[in-house]
Amino acid sequence: MILVKFVCAIITRSLFILVSLIGVWRVKTVKNDNMYWLLTVLYLPLVVEMIFTLRRRKGQDYKWFSPAILLFLISIIPSIWILELHHQENKASDPQCRKLDSWDNVKSILPSNGTMVNETLKHLERMLTSVCPNDWILALHQVLLILLILGKWLLPLGGGVTRDELSQLLLIFVGTAADILEFTSETLSDVKEKNHQLVYIILAVWTWSMLQFPLHLAVVTSRPQNPDEPKAGEGCCNLLLSRHSTDIWNIVESLFIQDGPFLVVRLIVMIFFDVFHQMLVFFAIKNFLVVVLNLYRLIVICQDFRPPPPPSSSTSPSV
Q: In the record, which residues are listed under signal peptide (predicted)?
């Protein structure tokens, strides 16, 4: 069992480093500057964390927080920022490229069966460089989100985390990843040329929303052993948090990390940058409904909460 944990921990972090390395290679290719290989320095904390986790914790992750996922995000997010900013600055001057929007286009860039190894490697390099920049960036976003879900699944469970909690967390990750991908792909496509302020706002909110993945507070929560009896000195607010911590953390994440910031950005896009179309309005309404329903859910939790009565002190009758 320990060997399986070691293998899973190493494979997961190796995939993290591989995807980050592909991102750095793409940045170096697009910018045509070997200095961008220095971005590989960001992998060092992930390697140090892997060595520490394998030696001290036998590959086991933490209960509330995943350092490996956080360090993976730190290693790849700068590459995605550089690619996004470069693409927004050079939309008009992008060279002829192959879009990955049909099977015929995909088959045309794949190597044939009869090619030699050297020719296959050269064809692979030409294939990767001929794909459209927008498709490249979208693929990095997609691979990043899929790998975050698979990586959390492969990482050995932290102490106190059950398989039921892990399954709930993975389902939350799938829904979160879909919303984040829709936000970045749809909103960045609305950016007009030379509108760098809006690009920075969208990327900043996207980076902020990615912080949900290292945290496990929405599912992995501490529970009192006897919820009917409050501990000595425990206040009403602490008791409410201990009993409904999962619901409250879900609400906090939605309001301040995902749907709340997404709604603000979409309103800014519509009001200040004069962008208006059917899908943008739909997703803004969707974010608004989620925010309102989460506030309603919080009010219901607070109103329905009834703290248990304090234990009555019975006095023995005097003789």
A: none
For residue 215, list its beta bridge partners: 65
Structure tokens at 175: 């829904």
pLDDT at 269 over 80: yes
User: Which residues, in sequence order, are CB contacts of 16 under 8 Å at separation 6+?
Assistant: 46, 68, 71, 72, 75, 147, 151
168-206: buried (b, 16+ CB within 10 Å) or exposed (e) per residue? bbeebbeebbebbbebbebbbebbeeeeeebbebbbebb
Q: State both tokens at 113.
A: 């069966």
**Residue linked to tokens 């992750």:** 61
Q: Is the pLDDT of residue 224 over 50?
A: no
Using the structure block, give the residue that is written with the tokens 């009001």: 271
Copy the structure tokens of residue 108: 């045309």
Q: Report d(CA 70, CA 51) in Å as an integer.
A: 16
SS (H, E, C) 16-63: HHHHHHHHHHHHHHHHCCHHHHHHHHHHHHHHHHHHHHHHHCCCCCCC
Q: Per the structure block, which two tokens stand in for 265? A: 């950005």
